Amino acid sequence: MTLSNDASSLESPDILPAGQLTPARIPWRMVGGRGIAAHLWRRFKNLVKQPFYYLYLRRLRAKAQHWNHPRHLGVIMDGNRRYARESGLHDTLQGHHAGAEKVKEVLDWCYHLGIPVVTVWSFSVDNFQRSTREVEGLLRLFEDKTREMAASRQVHEHRVRIRYIGRLEMLPESLRQEIRRIEEMTAHYTQLQLNIAMAYGGREEITDAFKRYIAERVERGEKIDDILETFSDVSIEPYLYTSGQPEPDLILRTSGEVRLSGFLLWQSAHSEFYFCETNWPAFREIDFLRALRSYDERQRRYGR
Questions:
Q1: Is residue 127 annotated as a catalytic residue, yes or no?
Q2: Is 279 a catalytic residue?
Q3: For 162, which of 5, 10, 229, 262 is 20 to 30 Å away at the CA?
Q4: What is the domain count for the chain?
């Protein structure tokens, strides 16, 4: 389910809790009085634990080289707002900013372990129901981060191909322009595939795939009876957002929520799941490696 238990004392809750490691630098003007005290206390506890943390991290890194890694990792990046509240930040958008920065770290971890496809869920169709202020702030953030990625040394050195999946027509034109630009810029990269699910919903993806499948055959002049007769479970796969990519072997969700919320519904039929209690901005390499260790320990039979 969440974090696997281990007999090692280095993983006991008293030494390495699954909770947050607060970033070292938080703008104090954004933190209230209680937030400052809580932040300083967390910093003190983390300083005490750090020697144990790095010893254990080194051990996990060494072992990870011999594990069976997923070809496609799906990530539901949950807990940005909760992180902001628990860190004493006045504005929850600061949590989203921290979450966007975390993607860079996770991308590095995946690159160094040779995980070729990563899909992260940044914004769902349902998220448009949030307050106008939050939605507009998030869309501005996405536009800024997309522009940053286009100039990112990490993207070009690691040769990361970036694709956005979802109902992109729901996004502002200025954001869509940045998306088109970065997709064209990285289209020839083959080292790592990063899918960013934005304005995404699993039911919407399946609906769109069926519509495209039927529309294409009707356009060819096929009759509905013939379309139905030849239809099978593999018929719509070429019309999915992730067409041509391996299905996700492992789907990871942060913040302690134990549900998929519609993420990659069709593709996740045989996926393994891992639920981590840590909020996304506080997600550590040690949490990442624990998820991969859990995946390595599982036996995947695909019904056999």
A1: yes
A2: no
A3: 262
A4: 1
